Amino acid sequence: MTWSIVARDPETGHLGIAVASRFFAVGSAVPHLCGGVGAVATQAFVSPLYGVDGLAMLGEGMAPQAIIDMLTARDDGAEQRQMHLIDASGHNAAFTGTKCIDWAGHIVDENVSVAGNMLAGPQVLEKTLDAYKALSKAPLAERLLGAMEAGEAAGGDKRGKQSAALVIYRDQDYAWLNIRADDHPDPLDELWRLYRVAQERYLHVAETMPTRENPHGLTDRTEIDRKIAELEAERLAAGRDSASFATPWNPS
To answer: What fold, for 2-185?
Structure first.
């Protein structure tokens, strides 16, 4: 029902998953991540336990292929399922059951894997991976979205489009960015819009949030408020509309 990309940025260790499908709210089922631990995508005839238990096993230090072997061995429905995952060091593995609906398959590469089922053909994964590699200088979010766009242009989910999601974890237990288009005629385009909205304010505020190393976070918001106001002034001066659908800000 889906294709996805699971990646680790080798320079930062940040982890990300992007996914798209002709299925409602795919972002609620497929991606499972934790900063400093790993990322798991569970898809096809989804088993949420592949994500939940797979992530827990990564946290215990199990190798990705060993996790696949354990999860599929205990599951009579494994041949209808698909998963791919990566650990915090970049070790990765993938599984596509023999009963996944054609076209189905996966590609595992250095610090990245792509997998899908019910696709227009193998070119969907090939183009997704090629685009991800070609965007090596771009921020991780843009690499993932650009890669998925290339896969969509190559045919994507052969049934059509409905939902998509992008999730990125840095080094914490919570997401740095988690955006979803659950029911949309062009969900990847909607993710781009949401990413632009996040850049206006949200991602700057995210830099102030408490971490395990600094449980206070940034308590003086003066600098972040200045940065947001500066970006807003630049946008207005350039005559660009906000990407957001929010009502006008009322400071009172």
So the answer is: Glutamine Phosphoribosylpyrophosphate, subunit 1, domain 1 (3.60.20)
